[in-house]
Design a protein that fits this description.
The chain is an all-beta fold and about 240 residues long. It has a single domain, classed as 7 Propeller (Methylamine Dehydrogenase, Chain H), CATH 2.130.10.10. The protein contains no helices and 24 strands. The chain is globular. The N and C termini lie close together (about 10 Å). Keywords: Repeat, WD repeat.
Length: about 240
């Protein structure tokens, strides 16, 4: 499991894997739908805000793909020069954000047109997220093990430093007041917007590859190279481990 996401209604989980598939699950661990079509590993998955579409990023041809819930491809986004590490929807569902090994993040409309490219990182962009109010984007990269909060004009107001290895995944809390980061250092960290560490989540036996908040903001989900996903409460207690 390389990437995980909650559905907006909190009833389903989406996972993306190195086997080139994405799988939709219920909360009891039953498979609902398998999305097949990528010829290489899936690096990132996301639900649209209305829950009707999913977005996958892949090593395949530096692309991201928009799907409906029946597994049909709606649109392929091409524009990066290297593999896509991370994908996200804007809160209104009208735009998508991608981060790439080519050291850039790109904001697109749903027709596949580039709205803005965020450049200037000295290392590959490994994770991206849009704030709930749509005014900021959060970028994680190999750059100094930090996450950076940008506004849509490209300014750089805040860096989040605390991991001992690069940032693989980033997420905003539903209320926009906290961020979550995951790293190959096997931990996830909960931060406030001033860069203060609130909680460190430790429990995986290998690097954390993906992090997400539940829609109500009371739980977090982490995916790892130890082949598990873990559901936690905000105090760092493990609620359920998903294996398989």
């Amino acid at each position: 499991v390389w990437s995980v996401a909650f559905s907006p209604n909190g009833q389903f989980i989406l996972t993306g894997s190195f086997d080139g598939t994405a799988i939709l699950w219920d909360l009891e661990g039953q498979k609902i739908k398998t999305f097949e079509g990528h010829s290489d590993r899936i690096t990132s998955v996301a639900f649209s805000p209305n829950g009707q579409f999913i977005l996958t990023g892949s090593w395949e041809n530096s692309t991201a793909i928009l799907w409906d819930l029946e597994g049909q491809k709606i649109k392929t986004f091409e524009g990066h020069s290297k593999l896509v590490w991370s994908v996200a929807f804007s809160p209104n569902g009208q735009f998508i954000l991608t981060g790439s090994k080519d050291r850039t993040a790109i904001l697109w409309d749903l027709g596949g047109q580039i709205i803005k490219s965020f450049e200037g990182h000295s290392h590959q962009v490994t994770s991206v997220a849009c704030s709930p109010n749509g005014q900021f984007i959060l970028i994680g990269s190999w750059e100094n093990s930090t996450a950076i909060l940008w506004d849509l004009e490209g300014r750089e107001p805040k860096s989040f430093e605390g991991h001992s290895d690069w940032i693989r995944s980033v997420a905003f809390s539903p209320n926009g007041q906290f961020i979550l980061t995951g790293s190959p250092d096997r931990t996830a960290i909960l931060w406030d917007l001033e860069g203060q560490i609130i909680k460190i989540f430790e429990g995986h036996s290998n690097g954390v590859t993906s992090v997400a908040f539940s829609p109500n903001g009371q739980f977090i989900l982490t995916g790892s190279r130890d082949d598990t996903a873990i559901l936690w409460d905000l105090e760092g207690q493990i609620i359920k481990t998903f294996e398989g």
